[in-house]
Amino acid sequence: MAADAAAEAAARGAAGVREPTASEVIAGLRATTMDAAVVQLLSPEGVLTPHPDYPLEITGEMLRGLYRDMVLVRRCDREGNALQRQGQLGLWAPLLGQEAAQVGAGRALGENDMAFPSYREHGVAWCRGIDPSALLGIFRGTDHCGWDPKATRFNGYTIVIGNQVLNATGYAMGQRMDGADEATIVFFGDGATSQGDVHEGMVFAAAYDSPVVFYCQNNQWAISQPVDRQSRVPLWERATGYGFPGVRVDGNDVLACLAVTSWALAECRSGNGPVLIEAFTYRMDAHTTSDDPTRYRMADEAEHWKLLDPLERVRVHLSRSGQADAAFFEQVAAEADELAASFRAACRAMPDPPPERVFSHVYSEPHAQLDRQRAEYLEYLAGFADTAGADGRETADSGTGGRR
Amino acid sequence: MSAPTSERVALARALNMGLRTAMEDDAKVIVMGEDVGRLGGVFRVTDGLQKDFGEHRVLDTPLAESGIIGAAVGLAMRGYRPIAEIQFDGFIFPAFDQIVSQVAKMTYRTQGAFPMPMVIRVPYGGGIGAVEHHSEAPESFFCHIAGLRVVTCSNSQDAFDLLRAAIFCDDPVVFFEPKRRYWEKGVLDTATRNQPRQTPPAGFSSVTRRAGTDVTVVSYGPSMAPVLAAADVAAGEGRSLEVIDLRTLSPLDLDPVVESVRRTGRLVVVSEAPRESSITADIAARVTEEAFYSLAAPVIRVAGFDTPYPPSRLEHHYLPDLDRVLDAVDRALAY
Ligand SMILES: Cc1ncc(C[n+]2csc(CCOP(=O)(O)OP(=O)(O)O)c2C)c(N)n1
Question: How far apart are CA A213 and CA A168, in angstroms?
């Protein structure tokens, strides 16, 4: 029996084929299929059904606010893509399709809670009160973090996958040691769950009851890798192995995301934390503007998810229940136009930093060697002052060939 | 599969052909990494390989660098020749533990029982306007680790030859690919694949790119282009630069450099990696040791600054360019 299986495996290997076995197919489906356990409040058709475990007081004002958030965030996101195409940004990481997952979580946060984003959390940034144009510096290449992470309680974007999960855990350990009535939330993707850092973060959080919400946006893809390459079980189920609760929420349902995240943060503050939330959603656009998803993904898939659009279901619900009229939607659309215009203008007006910035803030205390290096370089630059100037932003290689 | 000889081919394509021919030549050669399969890698260096060699030989891995390199160690122990791709320079650090603790030391620890015929491919260096962690030059870290070979290339022919040499080398090779040169075309003769293998691989030695008499300029990988451009400009000003491409950073083939310095008396070393405790520091120290009485000027380094890689709008300040190379040449000649 075992010998047969081994021979079969060897034959498959030699032939270079790797058809998945039946059990692998089932495991993959388990990881990628929205199951009965998913928490949903607002259906794709716009029907509202409160959830007994995740109570949420829902008002018309709140719904209109969430809708507005999502529209504005989406509009900035689309503008980000356009600005990249126009050569104003080196790169943009789109959030299209993930508006509900981000706004739901972002609006659940209390003023003193701390958030650790990955690099796609433009919607959470919006909820933290950060002007969207502050996000542009990273993508335009003028700086690594364009906002005050301490004052906004929204850490800088983290690009190394999974790194921030450990940092968030440690921050939450501190909150607990301080006895503060605060919690931390950390955002990461489905791909990130394969990283040791994420696993270690969960081990630490469990060991110290850290008040941290692990918020995984499962958008089904890590660049070209589908989630079943990362996991054979639904991601939320992994929480059991660490000994804390895991919840899967419909990531296209802003109310469900808000209700579950509010509950999880309350758990954390009560001393019961941590919690893992898997927001089951979909990346509607490319991974970044450098990516070409047609190489790895079926058009059908995107078509299917279009029907689950996070904005549309709130819009339908608002209109059907008479909580918003045409004037409201027009007003939000006008606001989006205005925001987009200021976002574009801010981007184009963004100056390049001075050369000193290369050397500033490497250390907090004086550093003699670096001070000298800076002085030498600035003196070297000054030598070009009367010629064309070394700061002419030619390609890094070419220089001017003009002697000083 | 291979192109006719002496075609002009982009560096990335030359690497692709190096991988392809090596996979044809040896069924134990496998490729693994994030997005290397269906996508063909974010730079398309592995384009088409999964389609032609199957999922058993081109593995799209989970998103975990320590996992990629650690698993490659086990595969190498089992007789495979894994070629692991790290997507960008700044993402090699999650794998650093495996590289230092296992990859580099396995042969030594097991007295040769388990050689590590592994290649770790790393697109490196700046100049492409990327976001943080996508432009670093971390080669010096790896040169500091005994048990690893560290190789880089500056043109299409070397990309093909050196990658193949690295794949068929029984030692682990960290293979740094100058990502801003990926799209630059150069002559490629793939017939070199039929040459008998040499130990140590001949391609790993330093090579003189341009003969000269006044100053020796040494560089490698992405910085070769501005150095060669500087040599052109200098020639127009009546200065003769001898340009040497190191190709292998560990072990350093320094003899041609020392020999050149004995003739020119002056040495400029160019690299975009930060200067402190770097490969350029080692070159300066060793040339001083070996050719002290030939030196008419101190060894001058043109390097990245001792700062993190800056936001991309500032990278033209950070990266050694033609002007900084010429300035260093001026300073060397001023003594
Ligand atoms: C340590 C590390 N390895 C590789 C990368 C390159 N990379 C950037 S994003 C990405 C996929 C991330 O997927 P996921 O975690 O699901 O998040 P998503 O982008 O889908 O939101 C990869 C491989 C990286 N940034 N960091």
Answer: 9
